[in-house]
Specification:
alpha+beta; rod-shaped; 418 residues; five-stranded antiparallel beta sheet; 8 helices; 25% helix
Length: 418
């Protein structure tokens, strides 16, 4: 066979083999498209409000601007590029005189993938991160590729009155509820904050040592005491531990936000209960009392308590002295209530200072002039002579023997002579 015949035969053989293959490829590539299918296509053109896509079956479809992306964009070119291959879902068929076509959505394909990923993270207990895009009645809206919602009660651990400060900020969230078929995604920022606070509390509690003095900030005040923030965990200063002196209400001594030093009295890690004291970080009221007051001093005081045997008078914060009933008045009184009232301001004279026993003896009577009376003289006239002499001993300082000394000597001498 001539060489030219061989080439012709080879050419015919090649054409015969390629023709059926090429046709088969074309027929196979022509797939029927139904509504709801996810298909691949190539971006043919990017217009102002839509994108033209060439589909696998040789037809074209249109992606409207609103179906291009789940997040707000200003231009289609921000989402796709010409010549890029993308996946789209067929929304409906469009028919016109020139040719058939389809309405497509890229947003829905992307959203489906996002929901699948969110479901995976939800089951795995993973944390997601997203920006707050809007503040609405009842909570916050976030963008995680799909719309997520945070109820107001799940935004923070503390009460929030105004949520406007959250808008535009990115936070971490825990997925609480997810239902792709209903486009429902409920998130919680509070749950993560509580978990972090719990870990932080455990660390703080482990580092708190009974008897140590630490710095804290007054978090809130109640009728029974003050709660102090120790850096993530609160401790209670009972009202009796605020000051050495009596405190009617914690607000009389403390302000919210004030930094103070406290002593740790006890730590209950299981109940997360910490007892604190401000009083034990302060000098005691009786410390250096001998430098503050001495015997014979006259000081101002306030009547604090009245008893059958006397009155307790506060002369310094936390320092009370006793005015015995016999030192209240020159006149006879049956009870201190006859002349004194609680919270009355008075002056007293210091009779004794005892720092060891933390005791002050005070007198009101010592500052008053003794009233004149004829009663002692009248009693003397009615008393036997011996009693008169005894009274004279007390009043004059002379003894009974001193007063009758000469007469006793004469009598003693006469007896001895006999």
């Amino acid at each position: 066979m001539a060489e030219s015949e061989v080439e012709v035969q080879a050419t015919h053989t090649s054409q015969d083999e390629e023709s059926p293959q090429t046709m088969s490829d074309v027929l196979e590539g022509f797939k029927e498209i139904t509504i709801g299918d996810t298909v691949r296509g190539k971006v043919l053109a990017i217009e102002e409000k839509q994108v033209i896509v060439g589909l696998e079956n040789g037809q074209e479809g249109v992606i409207p601007f609103k179906e291009l992306a789940s997040s707000p964009v200003e231009s289609p070119s921000e989402v796709v590029e010409k010549g890029e291959e993308i996946e789209v879902v067929v929304i409906k068929e469009i028919k016109n005189e020139e040719q058939g076509g389809y309405l497509l959505s890229k947003r829905r394909v992307d959203a489906k993938k996002i929901w699948e990923e969110l479901e995976r993270k939800y089951k795995a207990g993973e944390i997601i991160e997203a920006p707050v895009t809007n503040v609405v009645k009842g909570g916050l809206v976030v963008d995680v590729g799909v719309r997520g919602f945070i109820p107001a009660s799940l935004v923070d651990t503390a009460f929030v009155d105004d949520f406007s400060a959250y808008k535009g900020n990115t936070y971490e969230y825990k997925i609480i509820e997810i239902e792709p078929s209903e486009n429902r995604l409920i998130l919680s920022r509070k749950a993560l904050l509580e978990e972090k606070d719990s870990v932080k509390k455990d660390e703080i509690l482990d580092n708190l040592v009974e008897g140590s003095i630490v710095t804290g900030k007054v978090a809130r005040l109640t009728d029974f005491g003050a709660f102090v923030d120790l850096g993530g965990v609160d401790g209670l200063v009972h009202i009796s531990q605020i000051s050495h002196e009596h405190v009617k209400h914690p607000s009389d001594k403390l302000e919210v936000g004030e930094e103070i030093e406290v002593k740790i009295l006890s730590v209950d890690k299981e109940k997360e209960r910490i007892s604190l004291s401000i009083k034990e970080t302060l000098a005691g009221p009786w410390d250096g009392i001998e430098d503050k007051v001495q015997k014979g001093d006259v000081v101002d005081g306030t009547v604090k308590r009245l008893t059958d045997f006397g009155a307790f008078v506060e002369v310094f914060p936390g320092v009370e002295g006793l005015v015995h009933i016999s030192q209240i008045s020159h006149k006879h009184i049956a009870t201190p209530h006859e002349v004194l009232t609680p919270e009355e301001k008075i002056q007293v004279k210091v009779l004794e200072v005892n720092p060891t026993d933390q005791r002050l003896s005070l007198s009101i009577k010592a500052l008053e002039e003794k009233p004149e009376t004829d009663e002692p003289k009248q009693k003397q006239r009615n008393q036997p002579k011996q009693e008169k002499f005894q009274n004279q001993e007390t009043e004059t300082g002379f003894t009974f023997g001193d007063l009758l000394g000469d007469q006793l000597s004469e009598i003693t001498g006469e007896d001895s002579e006999e």
